[in-house]
Amino acid sequence: MTETTSGPARGSRAKSAKAGTKGLRIERIHTTPGVHPYDEVVWERRDVVMTNWRDGSVNFEQRGVEFPDFWSVNSVNIVTSKYFRGAVGTPQRETSLKQLIDRIVKTYRKAGEENKYFASPADAEIFEHELAYALLHQIFSFNSPVWFNVGTSQPQQVSACFILSVEDSMESILDWYKEEGMIFKGGSGAGLNLSRIRSSKELLSSGGNASGPVSFMRGADASAGTIKSGGATRRAAKMVILDVDHPDIEDFIETKVKEEEKIRALRDAGFDMDLGGEDITSVQYQNANNSVRVNDEFMKAVEEGKKFGLRARLTGEVIEEVDAKALFRKMAEAAWACADPGIQYDDTINHWHTCPESGRINGSNPCSEYMHLDNTSCNLASLNLMKFLKDDGKGNQSFDTERFQKVVELVITAMDISICFADFPTQKIGENTRAFRQLGIGYANLGALLMATGHAYDSDGGRALAGAITSLMTGTAYRRSAELAAIVGPYDGYALNAQAHQRVMRQHADANDRAVRMDDLDTPVWAAATEAWQDVLRLGEKNGFRNSQASVLAPTGTIGLAMGCDTTGVEPDLALVKFKKLVGGGSMQIVNGTVPQALRRLGYQEEQIEAIVAHIAEHGNVIDAPGLKQEHYEVFDCAMGERAISPMGHVRMMAAIQPWISGAISKTVNMPESATVEDVEEIYFQAWKMGVKALAIYRDNCKVGQPLSAKKKESAQDKAEQSQAAPEKVVEYRPVRRRLPKGRPGITTSFTVGGAEGYMTANSYPDDGLGEVFLKMSKQGSTLAGMMDAFSIAVSVGLQYGVPLETYVSKFTNMRFEPAGMTDDPDVRMAQSIVDYIFRRLALDFLPFETRSALGIHSAEERQRHLETGSYEPIDEEVDVEALAQSAPRETEPKTVDTPKAEAEAAKPAPREAHTNAELVEMQLGIQADAPLCFSCGTKMQRAGSCYICEGCGSTSGCS
Question: Is 913 a residue whose pLDDT tops 70?
């Protein structure tokens, strides 16, 4: 379903009313006079039944909901379960997308008319219809609080992002706790900077030592953990920031590292440390993202290897000098170990601040995209970029700049109207938001757009197109803001900040002029952006601006899924093969629809495209795809997989679009498990050099995995219930222990892990299956030696009762505790613990290549082969079928393997075993990402900006 209508083209830019009138003249973009948008689509009834994949229970059900026939199953499920208001099963419950959209757009129209935004009732009606069309056709989406609250009897909170402040007094600290709680209760998140609170190295007026901000973080963390956002099942989202010159900065950096070690110790002791588990609440600081706010002085001291002063909060005097490079190293080590803290670049942020006369930018929202004054909020909306790609199906493509600008103007107008009727959680936030009217327009589906147009995400062409679209979006938004200022007045704080606001507009325009044009796709977009920025400078000087900021790049988690987007925010595609739910139940795996578009753009014929798509469907990647040129491989690089985008590629994309974003970009730079602390330092340093405002990193497997403890408990309960309900005879099967013979082959290995020495003896059955393991550490009679003996016996008995070795390997590799570090084994150079080393060594010695490769365990020779040939697999070596059979789980039905095609089919993951794209990728790549499981439906979540999103039900770990 396209967004354009038949008939002559219609202009849509809202213009100032003719002389003698006041208000906007709204012209049509998509709609037809005399025809309501609802009457132009085919509607159908659907049944929404959402289950928990852990136990099969139904966690949401609403039958007979009404949606357009072109909406996907996933989008219908998410909008119905998340955004329909009223108790399920009552007459008050919404049952149609028409009701939901009407509830919102009619509220916006009414507020626009009451506040004199429109020149006439006819203009107000066109505005209502255009807004309804854009929402109906998934061209854009407001942030979740709008869908939750607008048009209901509850407070009409429209903002998802809040920044608070706290002063150095107990009264202010207690206000912080209260204000955060009210925001969390409303379903949103908040961030703040704690740097005004005096450090633990300073004195109180009574003469005692101050507690310091880290101690007060404990109380706020406990409060956030108790209050679930909006009464939903996810915890509150929050950001805590500390300036790098605060005397307690080292304690702040290490808070989460210490807690992560505690989580591992408690998990290993048998406590339920799953996300949401019974015992996880005993661990502190887990409800907030932590970030260090660094300034140019510190970064230059790092660059030059100089000392850096930590300053008292009350007097500003230097009370301690530290080595800047060593402190920077501690930040990188902590982020490498547990993903926190992130980093924010203070001078860069405030260089682009439109309102410095009203105060500095000290904080951000939890996902780091909204950065403005303390005690303010921002309401967001995101455009679906794929809706603006014009493609004739023959490789001829263009970006519809004219329609894009008109939709941006429509959305910005609506967003500004929302501030007129919005409710806010605190009086201070309400007053400041109405005074500065911060907006955050952004987009989703950038990764899909770049691939569809034949651009690699990490390429000059991809960055040029992304930059051009971003510049055009923000330039158009500020132009409309200046037009609105002429009709309903500039924001209250504009007069005081006019000079600074104009300066920032010139900075945006100058960056646009310096940008490099690359090809036929981005050049017209840059030209339109240049015109928009010229209008911004001209109209802004004449009228001022209605809004102190216009754009951010949010994670677009739930709303991205509601719009049917393949990619969220600024992220690249996750993988080339997608998991798709079908109407009526069931699912299937499909190759991204953007792949054929990209191939046509690159000049491939239909026969070649079919062959390449078939290869991707079978292998999950483009490597060795028939007829695909190697220079085109990069176009299909994804966030995960054989050809994953490099971490620095993500940073370069952020730098390419940051000059045209009023706020910042919510993005986590994913790094492989093999990344080093030096790699983290390089990313944090280069991001500063490139002008990025903020970022965070996440190294694979740096956090504790999520054991399915709930599943085990539920399964036991289910069995008990089933036995009561069905008392028929049950045949019980018990494993039989297979003891080793008196004489047995064995391998004894000496090893060193982090300076600790030990010996391992692994004995096998005569037919070459591992049967027992003996470990010797320390002196006989010591506690460590006794524990190793007990552990060896437990593992050996399990092996003899038939527990597959790969089960032990998957459970015990990546377990982290001391001693850890360098080993003397060339195949396993680094180990996170002795247990991690032991099971990696056993996998190398006893598991076949296919099995351990799926677990990500390779020998030094195999890693070298991968660097040289791109493949770990041995060349011209026969597969040891018997050894594979020894370690593989037994099958009830024999597999047919007479042809290579049959082998490939047998190796393909079964669609029924995956419930989201994240799980499908894991099955294809043989990896186990340590993302959390969804609270609502139990499926594996995936990254969306700085948060996680569940593709199954739309729940998020903190962003809306």
Answer: no
